[in-house]
Amino acid sequence: MSKLAVVSGGGTGIGAAITDKLITIGYRVLIVGRRASALEKTKAALGNAVDSFVSDLSDERQVSELSSYVKNNYRGVDALINNAGGNFELLEPSASTDLKTIATNWTGNFKINVLTTVLLTEALSPLLQEDARVILTSSIAAYRGSGTGSYAASKSALHPYVFDLAKRLGPRRITVNAIAPGYVEETEFFGGGLPSGRRQQLQAETLTSAVTHPKQVASLVGWLVTDDAAQVTGQILQINGGARLGN
Fold first, then answer.
1. Distance from first CA to last CA of the chain, Å, rounded?
2. Is the pLDDT of residue 234 over 90?
3. What is the topology classification, in CATH, of domain 4-239?
């Protein structure tokens, strides 16, 4: 029987690339997201190894329904990839700087980056198989800021959660790590895309003079779920072409 991976935000961009990678190494993948159309498109492209479940992962009721679905249809979870998220301030742009807007932005980023990860992980943790892999998605912004604060803060909040989870789940030989990408092309993160000048600036910040692509992030995830990475846990792994050095 194939191992099961659950990938949140698996319908597009990095999540779809991760799903594709996991299928190639023998996993069955349950992709989760808010948009049925995106999930169905990925299922159609990748075939019968993909299952899907529509869920707003910031809603505890919907996450509970997802947990019940997994429990009733699968023997357990072998890999949990928390990829869902984004920058609320880009999704819901506002020029206002009043306190109500500030509160909305900070609460919005907490919900889509922290709460989605925590609720899904806690709901599925009893279903994790021994030797399972848990991966969270942080960002280069957690190290150097995001310009407005709320997105970077929400991503950096995941780091101590990684450390605590790694300690809690380690006795079950479950590893917990986070990946922290820099700028990644071919995603919906910036909506309609970046102005060419901004893209060139981000590319110039790297030591490799190249941008990162979803397949490269997926390859890192693909390695983390293998036995070769069994002793890697409680870590934040950056993938940004050297745009930010060190830990």
1. 38
2. yes
3. Rossmann fold (3.40.50)
